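Worked example

This section walks through a single chain of length 126. The input is the sequence exactly as stored; nothing has been trimmed or padded.
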Amino acid sequence: MKTRGYTEAEIQILNKNKNVIMVKYGKQIEYKNSFKNWAVLQSLNHPEMSAIQIFEKAGFNRNIIRSRSAESRIRYWKGNYFKNKEIYNENPTIFQNESLEKQNNTLILLLISKFESLINVLSKRL
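Given that input, the structure is written out below as tokens.
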């Protein structure tokens, strides 16, 4: 599938979004890890929301980010989320040789997941 390029105006709008690191080669958006993590958790916690709705909630314009692109990004990020979570649970020392950023992202996702579970348990008791 060929990726369409963004216009200069669209690139300027994308670069102003707090969730974007940069637009590469006029057609590849590099997203911040915090946004990727947030988008995955939104998708998991709000299955009724479409991928494009999650992107819109994060300040992206539906006319710039296509629905299929949003869906494929979140699907890919979810795959990484579950793969890393499973690997970490099996062997917590596996990330010793990985980059610090990857370790931190994985641990943040795990902590968020644990806190959300705790919040759900506590809210049911109230």
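What to look for: The longest strand covers residues 20-24.
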